[in-house]
Amino acid sequence: MSRRLVIALTAVLAVTACSSSEPASTKPTFGGGPRPTVAAGDLAAAKQAAGIEDCPAAGDAASGLPDITLDCLGGGRPVNLSELGGTPTVINLWASWCAPCRTEMPLLARADEAYGGRVRFIGIDFKDSAPDDAIELARSTGVTYPQLSDPDQEVAAALGVVALPQTVFVDAQGRMVATERKEFRSYADLTAAIDQNLGVTP
After folding, report:
1. What is the domain range of residue 75?
2. Per residue in 110-133, pLDDT tens?
3. What is the dihedral of CA 7, 13, 16, 17, to 10 degrees?
4. Which of 123, 102, 90, 103 has the alpha carbon at shortest distance from 192?
5. How far apart are CA 175 and CA 197, in angstroms?
6. Cα–Cα distance between 177 and 187 in angstroms, integer?
7. Could you give the C-alpha distances from 153 to 63, 90, 126, 171, in angstroms and in order?
8. Tens-place pLDDT, residues 32-82
9. CB 136 within 8 A of CB 63
């Protein structure tokens, strides 16, 4: 196989999915390059300006979700994933450096609006060292549903994260019923997956 073909195939794979094991220095970043530390107050202001909702309070026990507590992106109450039962939930894992995530997130924002309170949407900003870039990406893609922060990959093993984006479907009893390790490329594909896995239509 020629060197030129190998390079071309590598580029295609990089666009198709963002590997969570990729060294940080090789990842595309939303803002470009290493980021300085951002003050918590600045993040809170950016979150408010973006219209991102507060993270949810504890709900019913979710037996299928790990007993892991994550901070709320941009500030707010921490959330224990094992307390996210009671409502059918779509959990989307993403990062500001993930190109496919940028194209998928507007679809999730549209679905969040269409389903209202019948399906809860929650994002997890995963393995991301630039929370300000993450908040800006949420703002620019219209995402306003609650966002958790997992820069240290605490959920990696429990949720089987191998690449981003990844979407986990949790039923009203708090059971993980399906995981999609791919980018949703159309709104129809996303709503079909929600219907199939959670039994809810827009």
Report:
1. 3-198
2. 999 999 989 999 999 999 999 999
3. -130
4. 90
5. 11
6. 20
7. 21, 19, 6, 23
8. 444 445 566 799 999 999 999 999 987 777 778 999 999 999 999 999 999
9. no
Q: Is residue 103 within 8 Å of 164, Cβ to Cβ?
A: no
The pTM (predicted TM-score) of the whole model is: 0.82
Among left, alpha and beta (phi > 0; psi -120 to 50; other), residue 86 is: left
26 — pLDDT class (breaks 50, 70, 90):
very low
Query: In this structure, what token pair is assigned to residue 24?
Result: 């940080």
Total number of domains in the chain: 1
Q: With the C-alpha atoms ordered 86, 69, 106, 19, is the resulting torsion angle positive or negative?
A: negative
Cα–Cα dist 87/106, whole Å? 22
Cα separation of the two ends of the chain: 47
Where residue 126 sits, what CATH number does that domain have? 3.40.30.10
- Do 174 and 63 contact (CB within 8 A), yes or no? yes
* Helix ranges (DSSP H) in the chain: 3-16, 40-50, 99-115, 131-140, 156-159, 187-198
The CA distance from 199 to 129, in Å, is 36
pLDDT at 39: 63
The pairing of strands 89-94 and 120-126 is parallel
Place of tokens 């970043």: 29
Q: How many CB atoms lie within 10 A of CB 155?
A: 22
